[in-house]
Design brief:
The structure is a homodimer. The first copy, chain A, is mainly alpha-helical and about 150 residues long. Chain A has helices at about 20-35, 40-50, 55-65, 70-80, 100-125, 130-145; strands at about 55, 85-90, 90-100. The longest helix of chain A has 22 residues, at about 100-125. Chain A starts with 17 loop residues before the first helix and ends with a helix. The first copy, chain A, binds a DNA duplex (23 and 23 nucleotides) through helix 4 and strand 3.
Chain lengths: ~150, ~150
DNA sequence: TATTGTTATACTCTATAACTATA
DNA sequence: TATAGTTATAGAGTATAACAATA
């Protein structure tokens, strides 16, 4: 499966702010972990969104920030690989629930664990005090961006 | 032009570390700026890589972290849109140099400026002292990742 | 032989528009 | 009418493998 994400990248291209390169480095790390588990990064995100409970298509599309038609394809491919299943929603015959299969649940856990340790490695060069400060500031940025 | 990147995203999906969501937020911000200037994010990166001097295909592919065959397509599309041009390399008839057109140069500057201000906005919620600390730590992480 | 780049092929991810089925 | 989801279509970005031209 050719997953198709820049594996390492972030070699200096000049002109791009370090924050953009940070995004590239982080995204590349996630992509590498996904690939190790034979997932695409987007499939990894999908599986993580299904941890704990089934979700409806419309809900997932919003969470992932993609159109419902794009989600149809994403779920199609994940279903074809045995990671998720579609199920009916009792009480609304228009709706579809997406659930994790056993395989999908295992892949989700492996992906989550792998991502966590890959991120730890990326932050490892920083002093311990900076690491926690960096994570705290990252959370603040994300929260503010979500609110806006 | 349907550019195809999650425009806002980063709504809570649960299970994903904030650092991953940070990458999503940053990537989304870059994508939005690119779209404003009718570029794809990858075209934006390509143009930035060409700021100042022409580069050879092999060199660009390494900088962007993609295979040379993928770069052929990327440059094809950018050339079709009048952003870049292919030129010969004196002294090596196998090689190709990619140069910015006037349009491409203008787009590159507009993209750079837009990205810089989008990043400023993302960091705006942090106290000024944290903003510079965050940028400094981001640079350190990127430098370390590049070295590894 | 090694290097540079292109072509061929196949996937994933994305969007918009049109459609079906249900509420 | 409005909502949930799919289908159809198109395009970007990616990879691998095979190839041509040149060093």
């Amino acid at each position: 499966m050719a997953i198709g994400l820049p594996a390492c990248s972030a070699h200096d291209l000049g002109g791009l702010p370090d924050l953009v390169e940070l995004a590239i480095v982080l995204t590349g790390a996630v992509a590498r972990v996904a690939e190790e588990h034979e997932l695409t990064p987007m499939q990894g995100r999908l599986l993580c969104g299904l941890a704990g409970q089934p979700r409806r298509m419309i809900d997932l599309a919003q969470s992932l920030g993609i159109e419902k038609a794009a989600l149809t394809g994403l779920v199609d491919r994940a279903e074809r690989r045995g990671l998720v299943e579609r199920a009916i929603v009792p009480g609304d015959r228009r709706a579809v629930q997406v659930t994790l299969t056993d395989d999908g649940g295992q892949a989700m856990l492996a992906f989550e664990t792998g991502v966590a340790s890959a991120l730890d490695e990326l932050l490892a060069p920083l002093p311990a005090k900076d690491r926690s400060a960096f994570r705290r500031m990252a959370s603040a940025i994300v929260r503010a961006a979500r609110a806006a």
